Amino acid sequence: MPELPEVETVRRTLNELITGKTIGKVSVRLPRIIQKPDDPEAFAALLEGRTFTGAERRGKFLRLMLDGLVLVSHLRMEGRYGMYREDEPVEKHTHVIFHFTDGTALRYKDVRQFGTMHLFVPGEDLISAPLRKLGAEPLDEAFTPDAFRAALGKRTTKIKPLLLNQEVIVGLGNIYVDEALHAAGVHPEREADTLTRAEKDRLHAAIVATLRSAVEAGGSSIKSYVNGQGEMGMFQHKLKAYGRTGEPCGTCGSPIVKSTVGGRGTHVCLRCQKPPKGSRAKTVREDRAPRGHAVKRRLDGTGAADS
Ligand SMILES: [Zn+2]
User: Which tens digit of pLDDT belongs to each residue from 15-42?
Assistant: First the structure.
């Protein structure tokens, strides 16, 4: 599933590609992608004749801005956008097509069909589902160490599932949570309220630095993710913990081990990220992967998704 850096990469690409383009017609080929309005024909009718004015983002949601409307789009597992000329053949799994008046088209493809689109008048989207309950935006200026500590509050939940909770902080998924916790030296099973102020501040800095660096690299290409222009992100080459089971930690050389936290595959260095009392029993040490195996699996685009 694309996380904040991947969605941000798509946003930037779309912002360049669609701004100023006017929609002539919209074809909805798979109605269930359209969540609001209920009727896909009404969705198409509302959009026809409108011009895209830019692309914004809230958490992992794209906010495609038009004159007088906002299209909120969630890519979920496999959704992706591409710009095409109208004479190019429509590929399989293309579910929504925005035909522009200049002979090009924005096509939305989604093999898994989990993606969603909602149409709102501007402003209404931020106070309605699915955006209403979203938490702190980690790349905003307002996301200060104080704001992060306030978002964690006095919660006693384990820190990893808490960081994955989009109502607390948006945009983080399994990859960047593992990376940020590793960079901050915080074990994912620590209960949030047991973190010292210094640890919370380190974690705040690690979240911001990890996401910034990933956005700069154009996101990660784990599995089949590609950005709006079909280029692969490069951040997977910088991963320090995620997907590196059995490889040495870049900080101390201990092998990265994989366990399960809150049902999610989790990668830690047990020397840099000291486990809380009692968690060791739950940490399953995996056999060392054959050299190069992990990298190959990530790059060939066919590896199984890491849950
Ligand atoms: Zn280490």
Answer: 999 999 999 999 999 999 999 999 999 9
264 labelled catalytic = yes
Cα distances (Å, whole numbers) of residue 276 to 34, 158, 190, 270, 272: 45, 10, 6, 11, 13
**Residue 112 assigned ligand-binding role:** yes
Give residue 217's pLDDT: 81
* pLDDT tens column, 175-216: 999 999 999 999 999 999 999 999 999 999 999 999 999 888
> Is 155 known as a binding-site position?
yes
Q: Which of 100, 55, 90 lies closest to 73, judged by CA?
A: 55
Question: What are the structural domains, with CATH classification, of the chain?
Answer: 4-127 (3.20.190.10), 145-299 (1.10.8.50)
Question: Half-sphere exposure of 305 toward its Cβ, with a 13 Å CA cutoff?
Answer: 10
- At position 83, the amino acid (one-letter code) is M
Distance 302 CA to ligand 1 centre (A): 29
Q: Is 60 a catalytic residue?
A: yes
89 assigned to active site: no
If you measure from the C-alpha of residue 58 to the centroid of ligand 1, how many angstroms do you get, rounded to a whole number? 33
CA gap 131, 117 in Å, rounded: 12
Q: Judge contact between 177 and 190, C-beta under 8 A.
A: no
- Dist CA 279 CA 11 (whole Å): 39
Identified catalytic residue from 25, 29, 238, 264: 264
Cα 254 to ligand 1 centroid, rounded to whole Å:
5
